[in-house]
Each structure stands twice: as C-alpha cells, then as structure tokens.
Amino acid sequence: MSAVRQEPKIVGANSLRYHMFCAKKGQIESGQLPPCKDSLMQHTLRANYQAAIWRRSLENLPDVPAPSAGRGWELDDGGSLKIRWMAVLPAPDVVLNLISCTCRRTCRPSDCSCILNGLKCTVLCKLQGCSNMVQDDAIVAQDANDSDGDSDD
Length: 153
Fold this sequence. Notes:
The chain is mostly helical. It has helices at residues 13-23, 37-55, 93-96, 113-116, 137-148, and strands spanning 73-75, 81-83. The protein has two domains: 11-87, no CATH class; 89-144, no CATH class.
C-alpha cells in the first residue's frame, strides 16, 4: 500500500501566492510571486480596455471611454495618465512597517526589497541610515518636547 500525497486545493490568486510563499519557507522575493487578486484585477482591467480600443480602431469616430474611469488607470496630480497598480493597500500599515531589507552598503532600487516594493526602509532593515530611511524629524522633536515637559512637581 503506497501513500498518495495530495496537493492542497488552491483557489484564487491570493491562495496561490500564500502557497508559493509557504513552499519556499518565506525565502522568496515578491517579484517571484504571482500578483495578488487586486493587482491581477487592475492588470485585467487595463488589458480589457486596450482590447476595446483595438476593437474600435477601424471606426471613423470611435466612442472611447475614459481610461481612468475604473479601468486600471488613474490621473496623477499633473493630469497625466499612470498605471493603477492596486485599488487597496497591499497590507495593513502595521505589517508594512515589519518589512525589512538586507542591504549591506547602500540601498539601490535594483537590490533593495523595500524600494522594490515602494516602501521606505525601517529600523528592522540591516543597513541603518540609508538614503531610503524615513526622515521624520517631527517625531523626534515631539519626543524631545514631551521629555522636557515631564516633571513630578
């Protein structure tokens, strides 16, 4: 009698990401994982919009809807069209603050997992004082003011 190993049933992009992450025991870069459900949806909306444009390409006066109306695109502050990568936050702020990189000398966009994920480096990162660190002098000043005013009179 031989044991049959059954693979877990994976339904959905988020489940697949989680399964792949666990299979690699967390030793995988985010770029090696498939997109999450929200990111995949935004990509699908952009691809569908592009297909609709191509389908209308031979019409004299095509009725083309605005790309920024929920079709995976958005307008930046200057009015230029840019990709909408996600419609929701990738994770709660508490989780995003736990992400760290292992840079040794400098944090560069090609190597730093924080920069690659569009995040600032944190105190959990290996390299401290890099150019990608959060510069929050207001918090330091507030902490200094709080400690100056502490007295037990």
